[in-house]
Amino acid sequence: MKIGVVSDTHLSDRREIRLPQELLRGLSGVQLILHAGDWISPRVAEELERLAPVEGIAGNNDGPDIINRFGYKRIVEAEGVRIGLIHGDGYGKTTERRAFDAFEGQDVNAVVFGHSHVPYLERKEGILLFNPGSATDKRRQPLYSYGIMEVDEGDVTAVHHYYASRD
Fold this sequence. Notes:
Oligomer: single chain
Number of helices: 4
Helix content: 10-25%
Radius of gyration: 14 Å
């Protein structure tokens, strides 16, 4: 199973919601899209749902419409693999540590998180930790990014995809 992973899109209704063409091409053919929060506009979910079913959580910048729809934390099952979703904001510890600790004792194979806008990939204690970075708000990163996860016979892997233009 091929899963697209996005976070921190930060697209508001103050302007036309446009996801980058490179992102849309990269998500073409995925069977599921995970969004790790800070959508800002619920219309981002509508755009992504044109490509595949969407599961996500709210981030620290999301309003009540997104919070009510997605909540702040969940576990998604994909072909027998359990993927924890959380934004990763908070105080103390690193974003990665907060995300990892949020699913302590909950039998997950992977944890997807966002918040930092920094792409991250590590396996810790057998759990894949994955932050796709930001597809639309790279901040101090050199490139925009998203991720693709592959679930195959109970194993989960992930890769980052990078691009330079937000168009």
